[in-house]
Amino acid sequence: MNGSSTTLIEIGYEDLLKTNPRGWKDYHAIITAENDENKRADLRRKSVTAEYFLSSANAIARSGELMSCDRTGSRTGAWLFGAKNLIIVAGVNKIAASFNDAQQRIREYAFPLENVRAHHAYGISSAIGKCAIIAEELIPGRTTLVLVNEILGY
């Protein structure tokens, strides 16, 4: 499963999923194809427990905290516990000097751009509804950060 992510689009991940050369079960495609709202909500809940969950961060503090916020929690549930393996791909532009600067980056930079995207994609506003902060991972190897030396996403 993957959370909606401009970064993943920019690196070509969504295009890779469309061709699906490895035969992966693509929960995102299954969810978006479901027309029944209640069934789609059930699928979203199940998806956060996927074997692998790919996402991006809204901010990364130099002190090590990884931060992600979304309106519904469809990403943050996987981040905190649900996914067996969490892979976070982020550009170096997401790095903030401190924990407080990372939070400010989300509020003043990432969220306004996500709000514009949500209006365009879904016709609704976004919100900083639910946030995840990974400050320490207790399960060795569960979370992998792929930091790309490029400006990716917002």
List its traits:
154 residues; three-stranded parallel β-sheet; four-stranded mixed β-sheet
In short:
The chain is of the alpha/beta class. Helix content is 40%, strand content 21%. The two termini are 21 Å apart.
Explained architecture:
By secondary structure, the protein is an alpha/beta fold. It has one domain: Rossmann fold (3-Layer(aba) Sandwich), CATH 3.40.50. It contains six helices and seven strands, in the order ααααβββαββαββ. The strands form two sheets. It has a four-stranded mixed β-sheet, with helices on both faces. It has a three-stranded parallel β-sheet with strand order 1-4-7, with no helix packed on it.
- Based on secondary structure, the structural category is alpha/beta
**Spatial strand arrangement across the major sheet:** 5-2-3-6
Order of helices and strands: HHHHEEEHEEHEE
| Termini gap | 21 Å
Average pLDDT score = 91
